[in-house]
Amino acid sequence: MELTLDQLKQYDGTDPSKPIYISVKGRIFDVTTGKSFYGPGGSYALFAGKDATRALAKMSKNDEDVIASLDGLTEKELGVLADWEKKFEAKYPIVGSLSA
Question: How far is 32 from 27, CA to CA, in rounded Å?
Fold first, then answer.
């Protein structure tokens, strides 16, 4: 399955009949089993239905960081992102990718 960023927004947890998706480095993960974290009211709900790449790398919950851009990230931040990627891969299925 390939989704645009606009299509990904539909999977933000606000519609209980749809799964919750988060993109990390262009890969879309189904995080529905973690809905207490990623669903409405969850501590990471702002990532749902979005590409959270930069925010995860920066350990940020600022809206402006919830984007795909890797521009200007430090080696340490890229390492943090790699750790998050491993956690997502171990815990959640990859269901698709983001299209340009």
Answer: 15
